Amino acid sequence: MTPHKPLLDDIVAILARTPASLSALLEGLPQALVTATEGYNTWSPYDVMGHLINGERVNWLPRARHILAGETRPFDPFDRTAQFTQSQGKQLSELLKTFELLRRDNLAALAGMNLTEADFNRVGQHPELGEVTLGQLLATWAVHDLDHLGQIARTLAKAHTRAVGPWGQYLSILKDRQQESVPNQAGSSKA
Fold first, then answer.
1. SUPFAM superfamilies per the record (predicted)?
2. Of 100, 103, 141, 176, which one's alpha carbon is 20 to 30 angstroms from that of 53?
């Protein structure tokens, strides 16, 4: 029995495209854009790349394996700000390449799990959210990518807020999104 095949295919399709999307969007940009933020306590595109790398290393697949192993203890907490020390001194091009390689390896490992529909319904314990399923974890992985792609696009757009002048009123990407901010998470999701 295959796991919600269309859902798994959709998840993998998004996950597989994220590295190329990030490279196309960020590679070769001026440093001022790479390090731009939306304001106090928000992340730059550079920061987001480090966060995504950390997630590839210690979040998504380790938690999937945790669920598949039948572990009953909660997942290890995920440090959503580890990139501030782990990425220090690295070039953006290095982060993009590291992310690409980690994602390639993780997608190969995911394919090697030969997940079944029953696996998609297996549960684990998130340290804050409680019971979650493997299917929810995998869907969140893909949506997390999209969330951060949107965050990067929004940050790059906001770097040009003054330059667009009166057209800003027509550009929804420049609108204030305070209702979506998460304290100390710089607008990131709580994956």
1. DinB/YfiT-like putative metalloenzymes
2. 176
